[in-house]
Each structure stands twice: as structure tokens, then as C-alpha cells.
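Morning. Coffee machine broken again, so started the prediction first thing and wrote up yesterday's gels while waiting. Chain of 235 residues, entered below exactly as on the submission form.
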Amino acid sequence: MKISHSIHATILVILLLLVSSCSYLGLEIKPTVSPSFRETSFLTATSCAAPCWRGLEIGTSSYSQVLDTISSLKYIDQKKIRISEMLVPDINPKNWVPGKVITAFCIENGNDKPCLKLTLANDKLRDIEIILNYDLKLSNIVEQLGNPDYVGYKNANTDQVLCEVELIWVNKQLVLRSTTFSGLDAENYCYPVRDKGTPGAKLIITNVFFLPEEEIMQTIKNDQLTQYIGIDSKK
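Came back before lunch.
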């Protein structure tokens, strides 16, 4: 019995060290999420194709339509929907107007992080952010959506290299972003985009944005973007 307890204790220590190491390295261990609780409609064009999302359209859909759509989503915890009133950017991001931010949480997310944010400006849907609760590779996204128009990276401009990869589909009004990379991960994922304009096929996308056309154009103008020429299949 003592040997058995000793083995169990050793295994527990090893597991704790592995989790601590991942946290130290900035790696997030995502829980396994069943397919029915994953948001994939931006890929599969459920109800409508981008720039439409589940029947909602930027600049057109009303507050009540947004709430009706959220209430129909089975993967959303309907008891954990937060609505905040605040000033938000208008459809033209240069102007700020009264608005609402709706934050929703997934039933299977493994933590208290939101998985869906929708912003309304003057009672009209302004933008949508989907925070993915599962790993989605860029190669799988391109298979479904086709090639993006632009690719680039954003640097945090700090003493430490912190960057994220960004891809834009102009006509779909879609902007997809990776997690923030540092150190060796920055070299593997951001630098190839900076130097060659070729993101890695294994790049994991974490955030999906539906944005107004005006903001898409402003992003293309201001960010470090190049025209997309293909994927680096080795990375």
C-alpha cells in the first residue's frame, strides 16, 4: 500500500509541474470541447455567409435581433450574459456614440473567459468578436473561407517581443487573429509573416472579428500588412 501511495504522489507532482511549466511558458491548456458546443458558423455559413453571421448583419441588425440570436445558441450559458451600456465607436470608428456591449460565456469553456462579444452603436450591430474555445488551424480556415486578402503581424512595441498574426478577408469583413507570441514562438509565427508574408499552416487562430467596412479599410491602412501569397506548410 505504501508503494502505491508513493507512486500516486509522484504522478501528481509530475502533473502539477507540467501544468506550472505550461503556465510559465504562456501556453494555455484548452479543455476538449464537444463539436456541438463549438462556434463554427463563420466557416460553414450557417444561416448566411460572411459578412453575415447567423442572420445578423453589421450596421443593420437591431438590439432585439441580436438578443434573439444569442438566446438561440445552445452553446451559450444563458444565465451568464452580461450587457453593459457605454460609449462605443460608431460604424465610422472616428466617432463615439452611446452603445451596448453584450458579453456571453460558453457552457463548455473550462474557465470564466467570454467566448462571444457583440457591440451595438445607436441600437445597430457594430461588430462581433468570437473567442474560440477550441484549437483551429489556419490551414483548416483557408480550406473553408478561401485565401485571405491580407496578412500581417502586430507588435506590442515593448522591450520584450510580443506579437500576433492577423489575417483579413475584405469582402467578408472578417479579421482573424492569433494568440500573442513571445520568444521562440514569435520567431516561428510572426517573423515569417514579417519577412516573407507567409503564415504557418499550423498557426492557431483564437479570435474572429466581424467588423464594419470602414474599420477594415482603416486596419489595412494602419497595420503592418502585406498581400497574402500563401501558407508555409512546414510551420
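Residues 33-227 form one domain. Going to sketch it on the whiteboard this afternoon.
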